Amino acid sequence: MSKITFKFYYLYFSKITFIIALMKHIPVLLESVLKTLGDINGKTIIDGTFGAGGYTRALLERGANVIAFDRDSSVIPVAESVSAEFGDKFQFINSPFSEINKLSKSVDVIIFDFGVSSMQIDTPNRGFSWRFDAPLDMRMGDGESATDLIADLSVSEIAKILSDYGDVKKAGPIARAIKEALPQTTFQLRDLIYNPKDVAPVFQALRIAVNDELGQISAALNAVPDLLNVNGICACVTFHSLEDRIVKSKFREWTTPIGDPRFPAAPAPFEMLKTYRPSESELELNPRARSAHLRAVKKIKM
Questions:
Q1: Which residue in 8, 17, 128, 156 has its CB near the most CB atoms, within 10 A?
Q2: Helical axes 76-86 vs 54-61, angle rounded to 10°
Q3: What residue ranges of the chain have pLDDT lower than 70?
């Protein structure tokens, strides 16, 4: 088989895998999110992480108007399908959710489903998973690939990424091996990691760095207070402690009374709402939801 023919089949089956992943996609904690939001008929909602459109479609079916963000251009056909069905009640913006601050109007709800999506993991040529041999890419949108990042960074910089974003215990030796080998594929990277328990953390750490995931979350949350109407809700689904720590810290800041603690303080601008974890029945349908955590706040004053 020629290289051109092989490449054709590789891309073809990667596309088929992506479509299957979309069909299998199950929105995490959807029922809990809908319970948190209550009646959304006629409300304007930002879905900051459109993905396969699970949240967006559920919100539209309940009468909401949705502005959806996603930096991953591969979801555009899904967005076009939703747009064809719901018309001007739906708007899609192919940009990172950190750019919600560019919207010129306030909204009633902002929802984020952070982390990598199942369809990204399950599409081989995206390079997110060590289960498939593929180019070491890991990009959710534009920018440098994981291969580019490794080439640009020093051993100590790679070690810091592995330690900070993956809690990799022997980050130094692994970083040195990665820098010396300069892996081009997922299998090449996987085979450099001598402890199998470190494979997932190393892939997670590099993915977070490639996509500046934590910086994106902080920037998006910073835009929330000015975008939300009074009585508006911000709901965030997180999947690991790094994401959850940022959300908890920001929500704590918003729900803390303002002023000198020695004197009567002004009421906090937000109040905390109930927290949810996946139920056993949801986990049976979607085991990947096991680490998910829903946190939400409600804006109570300007």
A1: 128
A2: 10
A3: 1-25, 260-265
